[in-house]
Design brief:
Layout: E1 4-9, H1 13-24, E2 29-35, H2 38-48, E3 52-56, H3 64-72, E4 79-84, H4 90-98, E5 102-105, H5 110-122, H6 129-138, H7 144-155, H8 160-170, H9 175-182, H10 186-200, H11 205-216
Parallel strand pairs: 1-2, 1-3, 3-4, 4-5
Length: about 220
């Protein structure tokens, strides 16, 4: 069994202890380290080379948004799941734009936390379609028009099939579900998703969803 290496980042020692207990109870997940601040998280990632980082958003020195952006700049960045108290949180949206692969509420049931870590480690979808739509549609700002124009321009570089895959991924569908809906093999979907990362200049599936959402805003 291949272990998924996990790093815990939270300024609350009790939260880290709880997460360690949850993740250590299953055989395929291994907690390889902890950090109590975003700045120390970057050093811990370099030291422990985790596959997935569970990252608190609110920390006193460097918050989870800045830390996520810093991790994305590493040569081999880990997957990042941000932890939050509120689902419709503007800081969650900022973290996702910075490169986080998904988010979890701090009161998420243990089994769902384990499943989320596994899904993100595998590179598949994590956010449910309903949560994705709720979060993406909840916030707007003065830069929305600029983002819409930029997103539409990025989508214009795609082929018709790539655009179909992008829209399906943005709905929260897994590779298998995308393949079923578009009559493609899962391997072909993975190849399309890989090209989308390059052509849209994004880090993960969540950022594909953000580009599609921004382009579709009226």
């Amino acid at each position: 069994m291949v272990n998924v290496r996990v790093l815990l980042v939270d300024d609350d020692a009790l939260v880290r202890a709880g997460l360690r207990m949850i993740l250590s109870a299953v055989g395929d997940l291994q907690v390889v380290g902890e950090a109590d601040d975003g700045a120390r998280a970057v050093a811990a990632v370099r030291a422990h080379r985790p596959d997935v980082v569970l990252m608190d958003i609110r920390m006193p020195e460097m918050d989870g948004i800045a830390a996520t952006a810093a991790l994305r700049r590493l040569d081999a960045p880990p997957k990042v799941i941000v932890l939050t108290t509120f689902q419709a949180d503007e800081q969650v949206m900022s973290a996702l734009r910075a490169g986080a692969d998904g988010f979890l509420l701090k009161d998420t049931p243990p089994a769902e936390i384990v499943n989320a870590v596994r899904l993100v480690a595998s590179g598949d979808a994590m956010l449910s379609p309903s949560v994705t739509r709720t979060l993406l549609s909840h916030f707007g700002d003065a830069k929305a028009t600029e983002r819409r124009r930029a997103a539409a321009q990025r989508l214009s570089t795609l082929t018709d099939r790539e655009r179909q895959v992008a829209v399906a991924v943005a709905s929260g569908a897994s590779n298998a579900q995308v393949g079923t809906s578009l009559f493609l093999s899962e391997a072909t979907v993975k190849a399309h998703v890989s090209r989308l990362f390059t052509k849209l200049d994004v880090a993960n599936r969540v950022q594909i969803a953000i580009v599609v959402h921004d382009a579709d805003q009226s």
